[in-house]
Amino acid sequence: MIPFNKPYLVGTENLYIGEALASRKLSGDGSFTKRAQALIEAQLGSGKSLLTTSCTDALEAAALLCDLKPGDEVIVPSYTFVSTANAFALRGATIRFADSGADNPNIDPASVASLVNERTRAIVPVHYAGVACDMDALQAIADGVGATIVEDAAQAIASFYKGKPLGTLGTFSAFSFHETKNIVCGEGGALHVNDPARALDAEIVREKGTNRSAFFRGEVDKYNWVGLGSSYLPSELVAAFLTAQLEAVDAIQARRIAVWDRYAERLAHLAQRNDISLPVIPDYATNNAHMFYLVCDVLETRTRLIEHLKASGVMAVFHYQALHASPYFAANNATQPLAQATRYTDCLVRLPLYADMDMDDADRVADAVCAFFG
Ligand SMILES: *Cc1c(COP(=O)(O)O)cnc(C)c1O
């Protein structure tokens, strides 16, 4: 069976974890945490990165930093991972779900424009499959009401919008290093802060509401409870693993892109025949090969395709269940139908993709997809 995902190991993870053990400094914010943060900052070219225990935690930290009040609204896409919405719901915000675009699952600025009002405090674009959202359009809408943009950049490492790295466009952004992402450490993430005036606040949120980080830099003579926060720091063991991966980002990306390009080439004719639609990458965006997906015409075709692939030894999977129709949200809120979010819920299929995927395996997957459509 060709698995859907296989976390890639670059080879230096054990060496670095060994160094972390030998240093007898195991809790967070030690030398590997600083190394990993510096690598992310170098990759992004600006802003301050803080490692977190997950992207979910980075989103929760960002939600705390938005300082939401009862009645405040946050606009998120319906077609996303639960954490995008849950992080803000935890703070008591009213979640407003926007639809996806027709070309790809990214949030549709027209849908955002229809939801925005004077209570909108934040807009959270998700760069689905690592492909940039229409950030200029979203920024213009946010500026109109003074809302903060928080990028859910969980899938967006090493990808760009008009030449600018994803994760540098919002006030805050959140990355994931979960084992299913391009760069992994088991469970991990980063909060990236693009507004220098908020960097100290972000450290406080990550350090349980204390100014412990400033204390260790010698900037204050004792540390105190100075605001709301939680425990979002990963251990040095996790940071050591992540450092090894971040150092190899270019090699990882080259391998993933090669597999992605092979799929795109092998399946193009199916899109031409309208059997499926393939991802549209807008001119302003790049492709980081986080994911290769295709969209079937209807749910029934997708179900049969996934079954056919399984019978052919290929593990392909569907993705999100639109959140506007989720049991938790729909039980407590009136929901509007969102046509594109529902379409991707029903019709999107993801093909196996991992950095050390063999080209023969990629061809086997493509052969099986082609055989299904005949
Ligand atoms: C993976 C993912 C998350 C959650 O990441 P964790 O690190 O597992 O918390 C959030 N949002 C999106 C869009 C994701 O793909």
TrEMBL record:
GO biological process, one term: polysaccharide biosynthetic process
PANTHER family: DTDP-4-AMINO-4,6-DIDEOXYGALACTOSE TRANSAMINASE, TRANSAMINASE
Gene name, Swiss-Prot/TrEMBL: rffA
Family, similarity comment: Belongs to the DegT/DnrJ/EryC1 family.
UniProt KW keywords: Pyridoxal phosphate
NCBIfam families associated with the record: ECA_wecE (TIGR02379), PRK11706.1 (NF008687)
Residues with the N6-(pyridoxal phosphate)lysine modification: 181
Full protein name: Lipopolysaccharide biosynthesis protein RffA
One annotated GO molecular function: dTDP-4-amino-4,6-dideoxygalactose transaminase activity
Coiled coil feature spans: none
Top-rank taxon, per record: Bacteria
Taxonomic source organism: Sphingopyxis fribergensis
Active site: 181 (proton acceptor)
